[in-house]
Amino acid sequence: MLSAAAVHSIGSRAGIGQDVIDHHIAGQLMPGTGRGSEANSIEMTSRAPLRVVLFRDPNDTTVAKYENAVVRAFQGGKEPGAYVASGADLGVQLQLFFNTPPEEAVPYMDAFCHTLVLVVLSANLPPCARGPANWLAVCHAHESVSDGRHKLLVLAMEKRFGDGFQRLPGLRSCQIDPVERYGEDAIRPGMVALRALHEARLLLAGTGTGKAGATHSGFLRLFISHAKMDGLPLAQALKHQIQSTRWLQTFYDAEDLTKNPGWRRELKFGVKNSLIIILRTEVYDDRYWCQQEVRWADEYAVPAVLVEARTGLDHPASTLPLDRIPTVRIPDGNLMRILYLALREGLKYLLFNRRVAELRRSRLVPANAVIRTFSFHPSMAALLRICRTLPAKPKRRRYILYPDPVLGTGAYEAAMALVDREAPETILATPSTLAALSKRPGK
Amino acid sequence: MTRALTRPLSGLRVGISISGSEDSDGRGFPAWQVNRVTMQFAAALLGQGAGMVFGHDWRDDGVMEAVHDFAMRMQAPVARNKQEGPVPAPLLQNLLPWPDTPKLAPGEIKRLAATLSIKRAGLPDDVAGLVVGRSGKDVKAYLRARALTHLRNQLVAQTGARICIGGRTRGSRGRYPGVIEEAYLSVQTGRPLFLIGLLGGATRQLIDAVDGKPRPSGFGKTGDIDRIYGLFDKPGRPEGDVEISPDRVWSRFVSLGVAGLVEQNGLNDRENIELHRTPSVERAIELVLMGLAKIPKLSRT
């Protein structure tokens, strides 16, 4: 946590007004501000991993496309059923504002492990009233000292809106991204959503400053599983597409899985940084090595994306465990669609890992417990493998955790029975189940 | 030994009073986000085996369809014969206030009967005669208001706990805003009550009462309901369901305090205060489930 003098110094150099600096210092005195004080904050209660906050003009129909794209990226859309449709909703809390939020900016941002604030500047945002601008100025100052814990991403529908925003007190040093940088008009909302997913991933991966190369924590490698020569052109095309987008090239790469003999080890031990892309062509299901790759990915709970490239009009039922994998088609050649799903799956993994860390922190799970996690509903094969990796005679409590919502009738009972038989005394649960099983003294 | 396969909150029926408030939008939750919050709570409760009781019909916003779709995935299968055990109760129960009739066709209701039960709450006995004897705007308003209280009494009786989030503070057709009346009746019957402040509104007002804060002007008032009740109530001091006293409701929550909530809902005082203040839906759900976990099985319906 910075001293008041340090904050004043940084603020003055950044052109932030005195009132904004004082407000920020007052905020820093509150618990839970800044990464350094995380360990002392909020009396060991668990915090949700990520909140996305979107400032926009709800009456601007052009901006609505961006809003809808961001909502779809994080929550699967605005329909009520999106939350319970498997995998569509990432479980991220998303709040939308036009005016000033009711809470102070610093505690508001610190109430979650990470906060991503998106601002879409258009003719009426921020409105003439200073409220939201002041709030965002404090937000910007807090982001600057949060050591990568929070992010403010400001997009301008037109350059002049960005220029006007930067003239407001405390916002001179705020970086503005004109939306025209995101390609042609038709694809901009999707690319902005992709950017939002990317920034969210970086927050969860703990990347304070972007470092080049495959070793820094925000990096994600996409291994392409394919039948014979089908996949090579896709790997090359995807790699080229990533390299040609400035804000992607440092963090993403695509690789032909068959060219990397160590791919299993890299996926197994670097799940945070890698993911499988399955290029399902007509012959894929019949290839022995493709079947092995899919089954291995399932048993080791590797995040995956399926590119449906079969052109036939009918296909027999498959024996491969592909149901849990989100699917994309690219009849128009839009490779960014693959990256979009890949980022969502990668983010889902990071979100759940953070959730589990918070469960330990809040002691819903004992600190010394043996935990195995899935970032999606596990298959029976994956559960069986995990059970057999657990110590035979446990000295510590054991948990197998997967994200809410809970398994449905049938699958729930089968999974419980399997775990009970293969790893007795192991608790198979979601975070909600842990809370519902909680017997801590409450009074 | 095989562990029990029943979900942790099986046998518990929970009432949830949730709706947008006048300030939900200003808190970052437009109407469709309020629907999502509803879905999150529904999925959490149903996923843990709890049943849910609603005091309204299917609406056109798609929420009930989504809730029902999820409930079908969680509903225990019907036994093939009586020896395998009793028929599990439908996870969803809808009670409709008079004079509402189900929007679903009878065939649909029958088809969904394994997961959904829809019943009409009717009118209290003392006003049933008014339906036949009189007509006019005032009598309809009176009967509707009495019907809503009658419904809410049944909702409370059929649930083992109540969760309140948001809720409009004005414009209700009952004697009090819906969330306020449902919470009040829960407290009067000693049911565990969970007050969640993140959507503001009527629940926020109740939290302020519990915290001993000043009462907002207009608390608990709904239109000219006092005048309408006065037209039909028997002479003498109104009591019970015909009493309209926002003062009494506010005082009840003031005297309840956090300590009173702690007595019933399984959370300690710090957890209750956190529930009132948390901005996180996920954390609110976690706290509610922790509290519900401590409700004795004997209290489950």
How does this structure look, described?
The complex is a heterodimer of chains A (443) and B (301). By secondary structure, chain A is an alpha/beta fold. Chain A has helices at 4-13, 18-28, 61-75, 105-110, 131-144, 159-166, 188-205, 231-243, 246-249, 263-269, 288-299, 336-361, 380-389, 411-422, 431-437, and strands spanning 50-55, 93-97, 114-121, 151-156, 176-178, 220-225, 252-256, 274-280, 304-308, 327-328, 370-373, 398-401, 426-429. Chain A is globular, with a radius of gyration of 23 Å. In chain A, 45% of the residues are buried. Chain B is of the alpha/beta class and 301 residues long. Chain B has helices spanning 31-47, 63-74, 106-111, 128-133, 137-157, 178-188, 201-210, 225-232, 246-265, 269-277, 281-292; strands spanning 13-19, 51-54, 92-97, 116-122, 161-166, 193-196. In chain B, strand 1 (13-19), helix 1 (31-47) and strand 2 (51-54) form a beta-alpha-beta unit. The mean pLDDT of chain B is 89. Chains A and B meet through strand 2, helix 14 and helix 15 of A and helix 1, helix 2, helix 10 and helix 11 of B.
